[in-house]
Amino acid sequence: MEKSCKGVLYLVATPIGNLDDITLRAINVLKEADLIAAEDTRHTLKLLNHLNISKPMISYHRHNEEFRCEFLINKLKEGENIALVSDAGTPGISDPGEEIVRKCIDENIKIVPIPGACAMINALISSGISTKEFCFFGFLPLNKKNRKEKLSEIKDINKTIILYEAPHKIKNTLEDLKDVLDDNRRVVLAREITKIHEEFIRGNIDELLSKADNLKGEMVLIIEGNFTKKENELNNLSLEEHYKYYEKQGFDKKDIIKKIAKDRNVNKNEIYKVFVNKKEK
Ligand code: SAM
């Protein structure tokens, strides 16, 4: 751990279920920090007890973020090293963290990320939906107008979409999504990641809705981007753009060539000759 006149803010990722999902570096930082700022100190105490770590803690959550920030910045200025943790996963991702990071930058205080679990990344990589480009929306807004705006954004985005949702709101959210998603859009609900009842439910929006009454636990929704370009739109693209269009959706070179040939109604060997030396990204 660093020693300088100013302290360091460590952003420490913690497990999202399975307590073994903590890195050696995270353990060392938690052991050596002067103070741990935790979203819920009782929750983090369980993790610290599991790791046999005893350390002063202070709460840092959505409701005290502003004034607690000032206190923490003063401690950092006095040279204390602070580890910031949330209840689960990576601080700052749908969790407190953003505010203090900005203040540290203003005050020239060093910020060090300690990487680890994050629900959205693990849901995405297990989903089978393209990981090439994605948009993370966190929780959909509850306010009707803002929610409607987000849903209409989701309707047209041609990148994978990631949402967090609470179990008691999932049915309502899936119903709202049904209004904006075509039947052929793939959706994956990743539930209880790293826990005993870990499950990935794959299907379209109707298939997920048919199971919505019995969904429990923590969950992430992964939604395929909107790739419903019309055939004539595709054929107006250059061959390179046409290739990129399918590449973004996660298809491999062989499938892309087949698809382009089909869209353009030409023999696939013709397309193959153009892309023969193209390496897959
Ligand atoms: N900072 C956290 C992270 O890095 O993923 C997210 C915190 S956010 C307040 C909590 C939401 O994350 C839950 O409502 C759920 O959508 C998702 N989540 C957290 N743990 C999860 C898990 N084990 N399985 C599925 N989703 C999870």
Summary of the model, kept short:
The chain has about 280 residues and is α/β, with parallel strands linked by helices. It is built from twelve helices and ten strands. The longest helix has 13 residues.
In words, what does this structure look like?
This protein has 281 residues and is α/β, with parallel strands linked by helices. The protein has 3 domains: 8-117, Cobalt-precorrin-4 Transmethylase, domain 1 (3-Layer(aba) Sandwich), CATH 3.40.1010; 120-223, 2-Layer Sandwich (Methyltransferase, Cobalt-precorrin-4 Transmethylase, Domain 2), CATH 3.30.950; 231-280, no CATH class. 40% of the residues lie in helices and 17% in strands. It contains 12 helices and 10 strands. It has helices at residues 24-32, 41-50, 65-77, 98-106, 119-127, 144-156, 170-178, 205-209, 231-235, 239-248, 253-264, 268-275; strands at 8-12, 35-38, 57-59, 82-85, 110-114, 134-139, 160-165, 187-191, 199-203, 219-223. The strands form 2 sheets. A 5-stranded parallel β-sheet has the order 3-2-4-1-5, sandwiched between helices. A 5-stranded mixed β-sheet has the order 6-7-10-8-9. A hairpin with a 7-residue loop joins strand 8 and strand 9 (199-203). The model has no long low-confidence stretch (mean pLDDT 93). Bound molecules: S-adenosylmethionine (SAM). Residues 16-17, 86, 88-90, 93-95, 118-120, 164-166, 190-195, 218-220 line the site of S-adenosylmethionine.
